[in-house]
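Helix-turn-helix transcriptional regulator
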Amino acid sequence: MSHDEQRGEPQSQRATAMDKHVGRRIREQRLAMGLSQQQLARIIGITYQQAHKYERGLNRISVGRLFSVAQALATEPAWFFEGLTADSAVEEILPRQRMQMELMRNFASIKDEKQQEALSSMARSLATS
């Protein structure tokens, strides 16, 4: 009997929770970089539908593909696993995290670099007060 079976937790359910966590992290970083799913898919050579399934945790991402995603999103593969614990893997995105992702998406869509710098400066000022 495997360690997972001893805990009463089928491996497929743990993997699904992990896949969802990694998918959320992919989405978070993609939005922070201002990329659409279509753009990310094109960069790493997959279909939009496959990128969508990775982000939703519906399809497991291979190590090689995760490495390509990490390169495309200018991060290390390990970053996608940060915050993953046996208990937290199944938690849904909190409302605050949704707001942060929306802020990143909106910031990335600002085309004027001076406006981005002004907003960044304001955020930094608010964070230190």
